Amino acid sequence: MNGIDAWGFATDKPEPADNHRDRAHGPKAEPGYAVPTTTTDPSSATTGPSRPAGEALDPRRTARAALTRILEPGDETAGRWLREMGPEALWQTLSDDDAAPPPGASPAKVAGLRLRAARARPTADLDDVTALGGRFICPGDGEWPGQLDDLGDARPIGLWVRGTANLRLRALRSVAVVGARACTEYGAHLATTLGAGLADRGWTVVSGAAYGVDGAAHRGALAADGATAAVMASGVDHPYPRGHTELIGRIAEQGLVVAELAPGDHPTRSRFIQRNRVIAALTRGTVVVEAELRSGSLVTARRAQTLGRFTMGMPGPVTSGLSAGVHQLLRGEAAVVTDADEVIELVGSIGDLAPDREGRTRIRDHLDPVATLVLEALPARGTAGASRLAQEAGVPRDVTRAKLFELLSLGFVQKCGDRWELVRRAETTGRSRRGGT
Fold first, then answer.
1. Are 90 and 81 in contact (CB under 8 A)?
2. Residue 324: in which H helix or E strand, if any?
3. 361 with 396: CB under 8 angstroms?
4. CB-based contacts of 71, cutoff 8 Å, min separation 6
5. φ, ψ for residue 313 (rounded to 5)?
6. How far apart are CA 134 and CA 51, in angstroms?
7. Which of 280, 285, 382, 390 is in the most buried spot, having the most CB atoms within 10 Å?
8. Which DSSP helix (H) or strand (E) runs through 388?
């Protein structure tokens, strides 16, 4: 496809087949909502000043903030209600016991949501995130990453964000790095070096701040003084896991901490799964570093595939159960990658090519074909005369003699009277040794 892709990259590379389908429906902003002007200057990498506490709020923003406290992330039924009714009407409906329920809603579901609505305090939540130096962004805002709209009715209601960087601009060049929590040293090393390599090349490393691969990828990006973003399954003020409180604080200072859930909310098993869809949709591609056959990381990768994103895996030992899920993924549509250069070659724009890789060059690789024939005619042990070598090599005697003296000058053979033998030499390719074969 020629031209500009969905992220603003110029490209003439064919995209995955899923990229050619229409985006899932879902308005970028509700009718009547004034969409802020989108910043197109890449130098504008930070947001504006946070809203002072008590300042008047847009009612639609307030309604969306309330709904993040009421609705579970990824609830497509609720997402349809939001699309059809708008945030204010939906919040009003769920807050009023006497109001008619949303279309097609079961009484049990509405009753449960109304219990949650009773505790919603959106103004307090917005003030809390402002006090943290954060903000709440909605679809239609200039900072909203448009690729999240690919989720359709499963699109986030809004995102709570900590950090000064602009989320939309950081997401334009972003890669998800995910994998096992109980990773091996091998997996941690790969994730750290991959995170550092991507960050060093100007790419944002997105992950979930979990133990294992997630944490290693974030640390690699931070060590390279690069950009990283953590997508949480809890509120942005509720670090999880607790052991990563300091790491998440560093990410908020140097990058971004993002969550669908309102401040103070805690993670659950289903929220981890739904968090993964945001990671998949937000980024240009997902790399899996170590994953068992049943792993949330594979859920992220497969969601990325359905969204038309690039899906990649870093292979490990075939005997390792922690690499079994990655290997299964690689047998499908995922691409093998071994470092940041190969990742960027897939997800980047024209000219972002990984360097060609060749084995170590040996001295004999530079010999011409005739000299190689003469050299290979020499016995591994003992000596041979020029006439015998000419017969073995199938090369005229005068040419054989000339090539023998050429090989002598290069140090491959030595002359013993009127006979020739190989020079014993250590090969320069690691621990192996060679004679003349």
1. yes
2. helix 321-330
3. no
4. 78, 82, 113, 157
5. -140, 150
6. 9
7. 280
8. helix 386-393
